[in-house]
């Protein structure tokens, strides 16, 4: 720190009137009271145990500057120090305090040599400009260095870029900023709290060369103050023309208050010591002829009085005075500049509104990294805690705290800005969805058609065609077809325990009933014709009652499997959060569904598939039987078509297992496939019969019955003469076969195709 030496010397001499000279003999341990020394290391009472001061150490100043930086929300600053004890210790104290408090990082720490080379200050500015985000510069430098730094910044065209925070060496002085006020605009400086002593002003401006000859340095001060050179004659006779403050500028030195307080602190300590050692005695007693430095230090540390400026003068255990500072800002307003007090510090910082370069009230930024947006975590740069990169909490992560992201729970997803988690919406197949409308429409039409066929069969229950179709198995088959259509409504209904249980039961049951009845029919046809090739006796279990027993036995296998499934794994509705867990959380949905996996569904339909395949095999085996005698070929066509439907179903169903529309596609595909299977059976097996019953009643009349032997013989002979029928017009080959089958009829034309078909049907069914 630098001072005006001439004025300090004058102050020191002018205040000597406070002390009364006395012949004291001091021990080597001499207590000292300083009015200007602020170096932090002087607080070390293991090295400087007899040193005390009425000014606060720079550690308090550094703490005040750290508080200012944090109050302005600056976290990335640079430091500049003049080489030497004051500058380096001040910066070290600032760095230490910033580390202890946290939240402030140092971008550059520059030291100015005692004897700077040419271009040294330009180099300093270049270093400070390396990190443009670090706009705030902490200065612990002497006046000359401060002035030259401002000049270099102006030369580098950095006006308004840097925000200077100066120590008490800058304070409220004019000399560092003279002719470069624009560069200093907005600078924040600090000074120990002080007050101008008016009594000293009155005394000092009355001093002249005539009345102040005792001060040997006063003549030197006079020459500097009036910028003149005193002759020997003037030194002897003095001068009555110039007056301090009238013919020259005058401003009270800022340390006057502390000089007075230091003198009074020593005076109070000696006074208190005299009262204790020499009670009731005027002047020194024998106990004070030799002063004990340790004892005097004790009395100095114990003083407590109100100083000349009205502030208490006290010392802590280290001999330091409490920190009390005033905060200044160099402001420019309407082309006028001034240092304005904008706050104070005494253990805590108090700031008023501040004005920044350009006349703005908005605090300029000096931060390493911009604050992260909501939903972003900070990834700190190694070794620089104030610098970071912002990383987005992506996917299903949310911002748990400033530095980390965490995954949301399986049933939650991050909100829009990834700061918290929210419930994933639950979806199910709605009745209004296009994925549901089409299957429902098909099912409704199918149910109506099925009911129409059932009503027709009931109305014409005793007619030959209805009888010939096997009424018992037909009603069973129509029941299965109805259940296949009805399953659509169970598959689209909102899942719960009841709906899920019904799905398990009826999804496979309708198909099992249908294919069990068809399998029984094809098996009966196959056994009749195989038996007929070897014997004229009828096969076993071809009666209607036997057919029903076989059919219901097959159906019971399906029901038994479902019952076992219920016992092992009771039905329940679940919310599947994996089905529609997309990479974009906004599109994620929880699917309300029954706990039936794809594999379980195939197992559920597996028995029906087995019945279907077996029925198809029998249909193939009976494909050679003439259509005149049985329903084998319509059943065959039904099974071929059904197999094609289900072969198309399997790749669609499993090929969409990874699709986000899986629930809709698979449900729609399954229901349509089941409905199509039922429609094929209904259309190929029963619609022709209904057509004949309703629109050709003349064909729905009783026909003469023939023996089983005649029918089988006719079928065998039909297979032996496949080409003759093609050679003769109007089906003459079939007429001959009919004649042979009748066994005695002389006229071939009396045996018509319809009669043969009717005979065959009556015998077989």
TrEMBL record:
Which parts pass through the membrane?
Answer: 435-461, 473-495, 501-520, 599-620, 632-654, 674-696
Coarse class of the protein's main subcellular location: membrane
Short name of any one Pfam family annotated for the protein: 7tm_3
Top-level taxon: Eukaryota
Q: Which GO terms describe its molecular function?
A: G protein-coupled receptor activity
Membrane topology term: Multi-pass membrane protein
InterPro entries to which the protein is assigned, alphabetical: ANF_lig-bd_rcpt, GPCR_3, GPCR_3_9-Cys_dom, GPCR_3_9-Cys_sf, GPCR_3_C, GPCR_3_CS, GPCR_3_mGluR4, GPCR_3_mtglu_rcpt
Cited Gene3D superfamilies: 3.40.50.2300, GPCR, family 3, nine cysteines domain (2.10.50.30)
Q: Which residues form the G-protein coupled receptors family 3 profile domain?
A: 435-709
Cellular localization per UniProt: Cell membrane
Tell me the SUPFAM superfamilies matching this sequence: Periplasmic binding protein-like I
Q: Choose one Gene Ontology CC annotation of this protein and give it.
A: plasma membrane
Ordered alphabetically, the record's keywords are: Cell membrane, Disulfide bond, G-protein coupled receptor, Glycoprotein, Membrane, Receptor, Signal, Transducer, Transmembrane, Transmembrane helix
PANTHER family documented for this protein: METABOTROPIC GLUTAMATE RECEPTOR
- Protein family per UniProt: Belongs to the G-protein coupled receptor 3 family.
- Report the protein name in the record: Glutamate metabotropic receptor 4
Its source organism is Hucho hucho (huchen)
Q: Which gene is annotated as encoding this protein in its UniProt record?
A: GRM4
């Amino acid at each position: 720190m630098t001072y005006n030496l001439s004025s300090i010397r004058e102050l020191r001499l002018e205040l000597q009137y406070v002390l009364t000279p006395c012949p004291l003999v001091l021990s080597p341990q001499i207590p000292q009271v300083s009015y200007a020394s602020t170096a932090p290391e002087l607080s070390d009472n293991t090295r400087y145990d007899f040193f005390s001061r009425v000014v606060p150490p720079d550690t308090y100043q550094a703490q005040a500057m750290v508080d200012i930086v944090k109050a302005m929300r600056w976290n990335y600053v640079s430091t500049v120090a003049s080489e030497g004890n004051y500058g380096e210790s001040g910066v070290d104290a600032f760095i230490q305090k910033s580390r202890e408090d946290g939240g402030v990082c140092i971008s550059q720490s520059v030291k100015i040599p005692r004897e700077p080379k040419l271009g040294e200050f330009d180099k300093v500015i270049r270093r400070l400009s390396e990190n443009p985000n670090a706009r705030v510069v902490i200065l612990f430098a002497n006046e000359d260095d401060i002035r030259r730094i401002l000049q270099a910044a102006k030369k580098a065209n950095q006006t308004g870029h840097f925000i200077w925070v100066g120590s008490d060496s800058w304070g409220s002085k004019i000399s560092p900023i003279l002719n470069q006020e624009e560069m200093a605009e907005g600078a924040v400086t600090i000074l120990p709290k002080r007050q101008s002593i008016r009594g000293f002003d009155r005394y000092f401006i009355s001093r002249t060369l005539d009345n102040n000859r005792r001060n040997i340095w006063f003549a030197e001060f006079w020459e500097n103050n009036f910028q003149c050179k005193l002759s020997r004659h003037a030194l002897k006779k003095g001068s009555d023309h110039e007056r301090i403050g009238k013919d020259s500028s005058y401003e009270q030195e800022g340390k006057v208050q502390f000089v007075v307080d230091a003198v009074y602190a020593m005076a109070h300590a000696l006074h208190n010591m005299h009262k204790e050692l020499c009670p009731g005695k005027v002047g020194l007693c024998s106990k004070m002829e030799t002063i004990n430095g340790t004892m005097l230090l004790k009395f100095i540390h114990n003083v407590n009085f109100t100083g000349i400026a009205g502030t208490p003068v006290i010392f802590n255990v280290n001999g330091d005075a409490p920190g009390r500072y005033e905060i200044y800002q160099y402001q420019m307003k309407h082309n006028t500049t001034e240092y304005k007090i904008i706050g104070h510090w005494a253990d805590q910082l108090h700031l008023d509104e501040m004005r920044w370069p350009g006349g703005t009230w908005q605090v300029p930024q000096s931060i390493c990294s911009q604050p992260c947006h909501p939903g972003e975590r900070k990834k700190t740069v190694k070794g620089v805690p104030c610098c970071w990169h912002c990383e987005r909490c992506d996917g299903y992560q949310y911002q748990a705290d400033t530095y980390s992201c965490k995954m949301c729970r399986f049933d939650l997803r991050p909100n829009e800005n990834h700061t918290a988690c929210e419930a994933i919406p639950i979806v199910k197949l709605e009745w209004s969805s296009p994925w549901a409308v089409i299957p429902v429409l098909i099912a409704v039409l199918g149910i109506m058609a099925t009911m129409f066929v059932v009503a027709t069969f009931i109305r014409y229950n005793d007619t030959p065609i209805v009888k010939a179709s096997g009424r018992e198995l037909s009603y069973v088959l129509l029941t299965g077809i109805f259940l296949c259509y009805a399953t659509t409504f169970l598959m689209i209904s909102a899942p719960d325990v009841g709906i899920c249980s019904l799905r398990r039961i009826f999804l496979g049951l309708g198909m099992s009933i249908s294919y069990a009845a068809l399998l029984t029919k094809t098996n009966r046809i196959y056994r009749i014709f195989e038996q007929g090739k070897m014997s004229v006796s009828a096969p076993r279990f071809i009666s209607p009652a036997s057919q029903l027993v076989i059919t219901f036995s097959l159906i019971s296998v399906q029901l038994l499997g479902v019952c076992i499934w219920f016992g092992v794994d009771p039905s329940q509705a679940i919310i599947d959060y994996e089905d529609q867990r997309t990479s974009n959380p906004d599109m994620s949905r929880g699917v309300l569904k029954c706990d039936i996996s794809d594999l379980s569904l195939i197992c559920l339909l597996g028995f029906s598939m087995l019945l279907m395949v077996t029925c198809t095999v029998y249909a193939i085996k009976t494909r050679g039987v003439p259509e005149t005698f049985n329903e084998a070929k319509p059943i065959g066509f039904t099974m071929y078509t059904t197999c094609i439907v289900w072969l198309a179903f399997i790749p669609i169903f499993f090929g969409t297992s990874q699709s986000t529309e899986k629930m809709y596609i698979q449900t729609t595909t399954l229901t349509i496939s089941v409905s199509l299977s039922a429609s094929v059976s209904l259309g190929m097996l029963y619609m022709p019969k209904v057509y004949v019953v309703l629109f050709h009643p003349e064909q729905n009349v009783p026909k003469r019955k023939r023996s089983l032997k005649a029918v089988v013989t006719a079928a065998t002979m039909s297979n032996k003469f496949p080409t003759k029928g093609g050679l003769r017009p109007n089906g003459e080959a079939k007429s001959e076969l009919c004649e042979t089958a009748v066994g005695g009829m002389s006229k071939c034309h009396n045996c018509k195709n319809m009669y043969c078909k009717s005979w065959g049907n009556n015998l077989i069914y």
